[in-house]
């Protein structure tokens, strides 16, 4: 979820300055890529280094076979299952592989064993570290995580080792939603406390009077698979459901009977708050003293998502003060929590030991889902649940690298300009190029635009393998258009990339084009991505560091005024660029800064009479 906040109000009645906190991974992407026509390349997706094959067809391949004679005997791959997996999943694995189950191994035992296997299947208890992946180099090709979270797998090391990581994100959706509803009802009626009291010989009917769910407002924070299933069930209980998720399509929410609102409105209106967002740098401890202070007195909180989204010490303080009446928690920042945890032992807290996916049906579904994903990966198929991919050949990335970075940063900029409650319904990417369409495969660039839009507010890792799947799952409709650039002598693969978000509200009106869409355009200059257009304004901005966009009245001295304010606050300016529609009318000033200005500095910029609005963006 986004943690964008409108922190300042414009003293001149215009749109208030807006800050976006969208920190996410900016490492160089490692994405398998088969070039078409002139962009042909040898690509090793899942096979061993000695078994790569050239890909020359102009059509995307769903499978890349290993170059072994059809008449040669084929040994079964070997799969190591390091944690308990349901029999149904083991049966699927045994159909194509030799399977060894070795539960409860120490890290040293895993290091000694892993080099004998082509695939490793784990749950959350086994750490697949860089050391494990290096020990498996030369043979280990697939790591399967039986579940959603991949915090226990070193993705960068896996990518460097050419090892594909797949997970099982869908099979436990209903189980997690049901557990959320179970905790909701249990908390509202004091079931666990009353049970403990009665077993201790106490009959305390008056003490454990609960609250009804009918007519109460439930705020669902994160309206993905689990969140939407919780909403369906809560509606059946007669609750009024509101939700916050910057990516949830409004039509999907309406179909369920939920209303999409801003983060602040959701926490302010709710009687119950159910958490279903991923744990990212942007959502870490997003529920803290400040957030609790904005909630109704007596609010009740359920968390079956990730423990780290709550500041647990702040929650204890809110419970002690009565601001939060009760909490029901299935997840914790550290698992298992300390035996003397004040939160766990609090009398108004109901706890379970991370049981969200723990049903017979969900465990079987996860086992089958991960077994099928591992099997497909070992056969060389591109898995929709892949969360990383092997390294691309250096010669391919060397040509596309600046455009890959440009595409991702344009997506990242565009999503930060969207008002959080409006959601994103349509994305259009326009490529301007002098090359023949057959000589430019845009799948990689489309994937990076998707990555830039999705990753800042999600725990999903986007690459060429799963980009289209991820976009579809999140309701993002991504269209592409190629515009011919009449320059036969051009050597660069692209002249420019445009990202256009349609039917959205913007927190920065200057980014809205004449057609009513958020529009950003960029190009590569001297090997560096540059922003060249924002809405109707032309600018020239190196996409490095952080960026402040100011919409202002075009008049002399504006650059000096803003520059002096930043200089007085010891904020280093890397560049400034001004674009305007016409002389003396409106203009946009783009300011690159190395550091993030503090609130007082931004207040001073907002107080300049000619400044109508501004937004701070992180790249």
UniProtKB/TrEMBL annotation:
Residues covered by region (Disordered): 50-70
PROSITE patterns in UniProt: ACT, D_2_HYDROXYACID_DH_1, D_2_HYDROXYACID_DH_2, D_2_HYDROXYACID_DH_3
Keywords in alphabetical order: Amino-acid biosynthesis, Chloroplast, NAD, Oxidoreductase, Plastid, Serine biosynthesis, Transit peptide
UniProt keyword annotation of Amino-acid biosynthesis present: yes
All residue ranges annotated as the ACT domain in the record: 547-619
Classification via Gene3D superfamilies: 3.30.70.260, D-3-phosphoglycerate dehydrogenase, domain 3, NAD(P)-binding Rossmann-like Domain
CC annotations in GO: chloroplast
Main enzyme class: oxidoreductase
GO function terms (MF aspect): NAD binding; phosphoglycerate dehydrogenase activity
Enzyme Commission designation: 1.1.1.95
UniProt-listed NCBIfam families: PGDH
Protein name: D-3-phosphoglycerate dehydrogenase
Organism the protein comes from: Triticum aestivum
